[in-house]
Amino acid sequence: MESVYEVVLAKELENRGLSVQRQVPVPIVYRGISFDEGFRADIIVEGKIILELKSVEQIAKVHAKQVLTYLRLTDLRLGFLLNFGAALMKDGIERIVNGPPEP
């Protein structure tokens, strides 16, 4: 189900004039060698915000940690964990920030 939500959400964001990339490789570096096979971010908006999509009954801590890892590896600051499996979408949104809070 996540792939369906991904394609529809990406289209809606594009319809609103935003630049969207899907399934973006998040490379890892090991001993100075970069590997693109490491991870894939579901959606990156405007080259600035990572959206990680889930469709589960309940978000686990590991899901938020996954987004934070992607943020650190890409040197981006802001990500959102979106759980389409929540009873209400507003309850399925978690904001994740890489670094100190904004002033």
Radius of gyration computed on alpha carbons: 14 Å
Query: What count of structural domains?
Result: 1
CATH topology: Trna Endonuclease, Chain: A, domain 1
Number of helical regions: 2
Overall CATH class: Alpha Beta
Average pLDDT works out at 92
Q: What structural class do the secondary elements suggest?
A: alpha+beta
Q: Give the biggest sheet.
A: 5 strands, mixed
- Judging by the overall fold, what is the CATH architecture? 3-Layer(aba) Sandwich
Distance between the termini: 38 Å
Residue fraction in strands: 35-45%
Number of strands: 5
SSE pattern, N- to C-terminal? HEEEHEE
User: Helix coverage percent of residues?
Assistant: 25-40%
Strand order of the largest sheet: 1-2-3-4-5
Outline:
globular
Low-confidence stretches: none
Structure description:
With 103 residues, the protein is α+β, with helices and mostly antiparallel strands. It has a single domain (2-86), classed as Trna Endonuclease, Chain: A, domain 1 (3-Layer(aba) Sandwich), CATH 3.40.1350. It has two helices and five strands, in the order H-E-E-E-H-E-E. The protein has helices spanning 2-15, 61-74, and strands at residues 20-30, 33-45, 49-54, 78-83, 93-97. Strands 1-2-3-4-5 form a five-stranded mixed β-sheet. A hairpin with a 3-residue loop joins strand 2 (33-45) and strand 3. The radius of gyration is 14 Å and the shape is globular. The N and C termini lie far apart (38 Å).
